[in-house]
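Before the break, one more example. Copy the sequence into your notebook; we will annotate it together after we see the structure.
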Amino acid sequence: MSHPRHTSLAAAAAVAATALALAGCASSDAAGGSAASGGDESRAVTLMLNWYPYGEHAPFYYGVEQGIFADHGIDLTIEAGQGSTKTVQAVGGGQVEFGWADTPALLANVDKGVDARSVGVFLQTTPSAVQVFADSGIAEPADLAGKTIAVSAGDAPTTTFPMYLEAAGLGPDDVKQQNLDAAGKVSAMLTEQVDGLIGFAHDQGPTIAAKSGREVSYLRYSDVGLSFYSNGLVASTGTITDDAELVSDMVAATSEAFAAAAEDPEAAVASMEGKDPQMPAKDVLLEQWQQTVELLHTDETEGQAPGANDPADWQNTLDVLSTAGLIEGGKGVEEYYDDAFAPSGE
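Here is what the structure looks like once it is written out:
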């Protein structure tokens, strides 16, 4: 949705130029942005996250603080989410302009008729992992045999867990699964009711380590050759069609913000301070963001701008998720992803 500033047509050229210059220098607040620099009109844009803010989201806050979004004419408001599915549905329903959501959740909702598309995946190696305490005696996949692992039925890490077990040389019945929600998984691991949990390594792991005072180790899906796309930007097809310039600006600004945050992790995390009462401590945020940086590229996109996607990686994602039964098979990449907005990094 666009909310341009209005200037008086009768204003003198010098006054107008001064006003635009001042607007371009306006600073942003905690969750919003400022007017665009260079005289461009600022557009109020809302981004809904996949969850409450954690380290992965640092680039958005840093991009606002550093004026990156403002430079692209975006006055950005960041909203917490309650899961990728709800975020995708909010985008498809026109409640927000953009979402930050897990690709498997996006694809599954597109199959159900939700009007949304990916306009760029940024976490290109799955953070899915079995997470255990380093002193648990579980050091490799074979050690999982006979253990109890907390899972959340229906999410991508759980749905693809049988594929992980197969790739690791284990059978589907070798590991007992205890179904819990996100908070329940963390609690069960902290109280040692389970031997570990399945989830995003860059999210729960640092939190559990901080709360327990114990080191957490990870059996990553990618370590056994199983990977697929994770979080990225989502827009409705209506926005893509009717306001392609806005989508292009949002993707470009997000790419620049991720690159800047990767260059200065401490400053990026510092920009999140005080933005949400449920946010983890600063040291946890920093560890979460540093782990996120490791997920931003595949072999196919190494050296490219954050958010630049490769067709082979997309096809691999569709193949993995259709094999797991999470999405329908037979659809082309173009049914889920619009490649017209790929960032150049220039």
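Residues 130 and 198 are 5 Å apart (CA to CA). Residues 244-263 form the longest helix (20 residues). Try to locate both features in your own notes.
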